[in-house]
Write a structure and sequence with these properties.
Helices cover 6% and strands 46% of the residues. By secondary structure, it is mainly beta.
Amino acid sequence: SKPAAPPAVTKALGSIAEPRGGRYIRVWIGNARGEEGKTRVTFVWEPLPPIPGGERTPLGGVTLLATGPGNRSYFQGAVEPAPPAAGTPPPDGAAAGGTPGLSRREPAGVSFDVVPGSLNLRITVKGTGTETLDTDVREYRIPDLTLPQVALSTPAVFRTANAREFRALNEHPNPVPTASREFRRTERLLIRFEAYAPGTSAPEVTARVLNRGGTGMVDLQVRPPASGGGPHQIDLPLAGFASGEYLVEIKAKGAEGEATELVAMKITA
C-alpha cells in the first residue's frame, strides 16, 4: 500500500473541495503584515456556478462584517468587484457593462488591518433585490507576523487565460486574487507572497510542485522582490500538467527557523 500523505497535504487538498450544495460563493482569506504591528487581512469572494440543471435566485452582491474581541469593528460594508485592468477582456460569460448576476465571475475583495488574535466574519449574500440568499459566520485565528521568526504571508493566486491578461495583471496596481482553486490546463497562474525574517535578514525562499501524495515533482523558480520592495512571485503555466490535484509548496528558511505554505489546486482538461 502507498504511504499516507502528510497531514498538512491532506488538509490543504481538503480546502479545494467545492462548498456544499446551496452555497452561492467561494471565499478566500489571506494574511500579510499590516501597519503598526497589525496583520492585514484580505477577504475575497467569487460566485459559484449553479448546479447543472438547477435554478436559483440571481446573486446581487456580498456584504461583510468583520469584528474582533469586544465587538471591535474592523470592516462593515459591501465587497464589490474592482474595475478590470486596462486591456483585460470581460470574464467568461459576462458582457462589458453587464449588470450584476451569476454571469459575473471576476473576484471581489477588500483588505483591512486587524489586531492579531480572534477575528469573526459575518458574510451575507444578497439577491438582486432586498432579499438575503445566504448567511455564513466564520471564526479565524489571525497570526502575528511581526514576531522574531521566519514567516510567510498567505500566498495569493491570480489566474490568466492568455498573454494579454498576464500582461494586464502585471500592470494592475492592486489586482484581486482568485478564490477558486480549480483551473484549466490552458491557464497561467501567478502566485504572490511575502517572506519575513527578524531584522534586515532575508530568508531563503524555494518552491516546488507536489503530487497529491506529497511527493515533489518539479522545482519552481521564485522571483525575488524588486529593489523597492514587494512580493515574491511564481510564474506557473499549467499546460505541462496532466489533469488532477497538485500542491505548490513554498518554503522560507533562515537562521530563526523555517515556514511552509501549501497551495492546493485541481487542474482540469
